[in-house]
Amino acid sequence: MQTESPLHTHDPYAGNVLIKGLGPIRTRSELGKLLIELPPKPPPDIASVPRHLRLHMLLRLRDLHLPSAEELCLHESIDLMIRQNYRYMDPASSRTWSLISGEPAQQWKRPGSPAFGAAVEGVSGAGKSEAILRCLSTYPQQVIQHKSFLKMANGLQQVTWLSIDVPASGRATDLAAALMTAWKKATGSTRFDRTLAGAWRNGPQMLEEWRQVASSHFLGLLHLDEIQNFFKLSTLDRRRKRKSGDDSPELSIVEDQCIKWILTLMNTWQIPLLVSGTPDGISALTKRLSNAERIVTSESHRVSWRHQLLR
Predict the structure, then answer these.
(1) How far is the C-alpha of 41 from the C-alpha of 107, rounded, in Å?
(2) According to the 3-state scheme, what is the secondary structure of 8-35?
(3) Which of 43, 76, 161, 294 is the most exposed place for a label (fewest CB within 10 A)?
């Protein structure tokens, strides 16, 4: 008598404590069910409900969310970046702790360990941020509490993901402050209170201070939204001289150190980066060849108005 074969239970990340709290790797069908949001059904006797109450029930339709195929692909990209990077950052490896401690690169840089990055492009209002945050919210916890952890006497607070808007100024000081504020909101830590309260701020130093903390807590993915804020329009005089038929003027960067920092974040410190923004912002970022190769190592996604209408 032939028996049914057992379910496939192979785990490509078995034994990695950083991945245990992420939940299972889901199929697209499972993701679709997880990402869908349906408003409550109206009562059978809806016609008898007073008009002023029906109006409030009607607005519940705004909660309707039907994930598009692109959104499912986006989740797969995010999941691959987080899990694969954690594979290279396995706490069981001594090289991982060399990286976190900041030892010279030649001592800890693992051959073949890639930089993980992806970009989501779409016009304002197309639903980029909404889609990304919905994908990130499928993980059981943003912050995973490890009561015991290798080489950590008091356990570890593991941060799975962090999402911020790039400040309108596009400057390193404001970017660092936004990262520190978001970190406190997610973890409850007072680690950056003194820096944020200081009257004098040094952007690069603040970014490095935040990076050291993020690395030591095994940040799984950083999402930078409104990436176009790193750039600015060309001068008014230059735009006035532009002739009909000329290509659109390229955006200029506000502070070059911000772009250098996010590249170092991925390439040297192995923190996956997801950027999202308008087509001109993504184009300005990827036109710099050294950036483009890294930003699209995982995937490039475009969110269109059609996706917004489906939502």
Answers:
(1) 60
(2) CCCCCCCCCHHHHCCCCCCCHHHHHHHH
(3) 43
> Six-digit token pair at 283?
């184009």
Predicted local distance difference test score (pLDDT) of residue 102: 65
Which residues does 297 contact at the CB level (< 8 Å), separation at least 6? Answer: 114, 115, 116, 117, 118
CB atoms within 10 A of CB 229: 22
**In angstroms, rounded to a whole number, what is the distance separating the alpha carbons of residues 54 and 47?**
9
Local structure of residue 129 (DSSP, 8 states): H
pLDDT tens sequence across 240-284: 555 555 555 556 777 888 888 988 888 888 899 999 999 888 888
Minimum mean pLDDT range among 86-100, 131-145, 242-256, 264-278: 242-256
Between the CA of residue 209 and those of 79, 144, 212, 254, what are the distances in Å?
27, 22, 5, 22
Coil, helix or strand at residue 6:
coil
Q: Which residues of 89-115 are buried (b: 16+ CB within 10 A; e: fewer)?
A: bbbeeebbbbbbeeeeeeebbeeebbb
Cβ neighbours of residue 78 closer than 8 Å, sequence gap 6 or more: 118, 132, 135, 136, 221, 274
Question: Which CATH number, 3.40.50.300, 3.40.47.10, 3.90.228.20, 3.30.70.260, labels domain 17-38+51-235+249-310?
Answer: 3.40.50.300
Entry field: residues in the chain: 311
Tokens of 190: 């007072």
Rounded Cα distance, 209 and 183, in Å: 12
- For 286, other C-beta atoms within 10 Å of its C-beta total 18
Helix crossing, 94-101 with 203-216: angle to 10°? Answer: 160
Say which amino acid occupies 200.
W
Distance, CA of 254 to CA of 278 (rounded, Å): 16
Token pair of 227 as six digits: 């990436």
